[in-house]
Design a protein that fits this description.
Blueprint: E1 10-14, E2 17-20, H1 21-44, H2 50-76, H3 78-83, H4 98-115, H5 120-127, H6 131-144, H7 173-192, H8 201-217, H9 237-266
Antiparallel strand pairs: 1-2
Length: 267
């Protein structure tokens, strides 16, 4: 069994002001995405300035934060937030939904694309390889907060989390998700998107592999206490929300390549 590293969730305290690691992880994700996007900006559109890229990153980041928080409220714990609406603003305690954040990003991208003469999938294909940076950083934040841990296990890398009332050795599922949703997904999308691909294909790859990785980790992750398992004694809300991503990702990839082949024949 590995010892859980006792890390104070508060990275810096200046009087009453507290800066949490969880919040810093979002800044790292957004900053890293902007930096990598700037490296591919010329290939994406040589007429775009860094200022326009910064505008895109700002609106996408806003979509992540607003969508992620509202998604968690709607998908995972609506009754608690209805009882105490002020809890919605306590984001430093966690409680963000990837799927809600994805919806927020899609809406922000749709709006930004209409204002800048870019199609929805042109922008989504550009953004998709950048997202795993934020996903990986967010999972590190979950680990530091000692939240979203896994099921009990006797594996040698199990950990006892200080927030676990039962104090059982558990899967460090946050680290599994960091490795899969952060590192592996980034590698897949970054290398796949280095060559020109048909529009929608990169977005499809993102949806497909994120859905697969998240669906798999949910088998060893403890479901949210207020929800538990939704069906069959094992299906979680995360898995329910990932199923349409997997199917949608496959559909986008097939559609992208079929459309490319059809255009090649007709031309």
């Amino acid at each position: 069994m590995l010892a859980y590293p006792q890390i104070d969730p508060v990275a810096l305290a200046i009087g009453p002001l507290k800066i949490h690691w969880y919040g810093l992880m979002y800044l790292i994700g957004i900053g890293g995405a902007w930096w990598l996007a700037s490296r591919r900006l010329h290939a994406f559109d040589p007429t775009w300035s860094r200022e326009k890229l910064s505008d895109l990153v700002f609106w996408v980041a806003l979509g992540v934060i607003a969508g992620g928080r509202l998604g968690y409220v709607l998908f995972y714990d609506l009754s608690a937030y209805i009882a105490n609406p002020l809890l919605i603003f306590e984001v430093w305690k966690g409680g963000m939904s990837f799927h809600g954040g994805l919806i927020g990003v899609m809406l922000a991208t749709l709006w930004f694309g209409k204002r800048n003469n870019k199609s929805f999938f042109q922008l989504m294909d550009f953004i998709a390889p950048l997202v795993p940076i934020g996903l990986g950083a967010g999972r590190v934040g979950n680990f530091i907060n000692a939240e979203l841990w896994g099921k009990a296990t006797d594996l040698p890398w199990a950990m006892i989390f200080p927030t676990d009332p039962a104090q059982l050795p558990r899967h460090p599922s946050q680290l599994y998700q960091f490795a899969l949703e952060g590192v592996a997904l980034f590698a897949i999308l970054w290398f796949y998107s280095r060559k020109p691909r048909p529009t929608m294909a990169v977005s499809g790859m993102f949806a497909l592999f994120y859905g697969i990785f998240r669906f798999a980790v949910e088998f060893v992750r403890v479901p949210d206490a207020q929800l538990g398992y939704l069906a069959f004694g094992w299906l979680t809300m995360g898995q329910v929300l990932c199923l349409p991503m997997i199917l949608g990702g496959i559909a986008l990839i097939v559609w992208a390549y079929r459309r490319q082949a059809a255009q090649g024949v007709t031309s």
